[in-house]
Amino acid sequence: MAGETGLFVYGLVPSDVEATSDAAGVGDPPGDVTVIRHGDLGALVSEVPLDAPLGRSADLRAYQELLDGTAAVAPVLPVRFGTVVTGPDAVLDLLRPHHDRFAAALAEFEGRVQYVVHGRFDERALLRGILDENPAAARLAEQVRGRAEAASREPRIRLGELISQAVELRREAENRRLLDVVADHVSSTELRPPSHEMDAVHVALLVDSDRANALVDALEEFAQQRRGLLRLRLLGPLAPYDFVAAHQLAG
User: Fold this and answer.
1) Cis peptide, bond prior to residue 237, ω within 30 of zero
2) Residue 6 phi, psi dihedral angles, 5° rounding
3) What residues contact residue 63 under an 8 Å CB cut-off, 6+ apart?
4) What is the spatial distance between Cα 130 and Cα 196, in angstroms, rounded to a whole number?
5) pTM of the entire structure?
């Protein structure tokens, strides 16, 4: 297959969307992004060598930057990262049978973008709070303090279990608090699984673009209220990865 090329498919958009001259695709050098159209739909694609490995961090970054940049100006249905087809006919084979379903989804996401809120507990503050509120954990912590690990194995295991349970309960509580704070500003939410044992919140939010400033203000107030216990990071605006994807709609 040396020298043969295929098309990397990024996402689906309304047919009137144009690829900008500075749009950069995956690969080294980055591929030129074009649009293949059928009816009311367009597919953002770029040419890639079929024998070239994909999956570098730079490729994932290019994929996300293209979709997120598109989402800022038009609805987009992300296609699973790494989807490569043989050519334009294969793209049309994706668009034709699912045209109405894709078009309806694009209409639903018109004017909406995704944000992700990711927060982690301050470990010292969290553990201090757990020990203050849990006498059993505090007693176990006192038992293991200053003792060799081998000589305090059982209480250490039990202490670890109690702390893990407490962290999970606090994580659930923080996610509920966050969802209450954003409820009036978003159209949909999706909880993400924790990516670290000290994760406090990890939530994807779908928001109307004209409500984004109000959402950011509410999240800033929430961050101030939880300051000292957790640190928040807000990512967005993004393509709606957590709420819709072309491969899901296509079954």
Assistant:
1) yes
2) -135, -175
3) 10, 26, 81
4) 18
5) 0.87
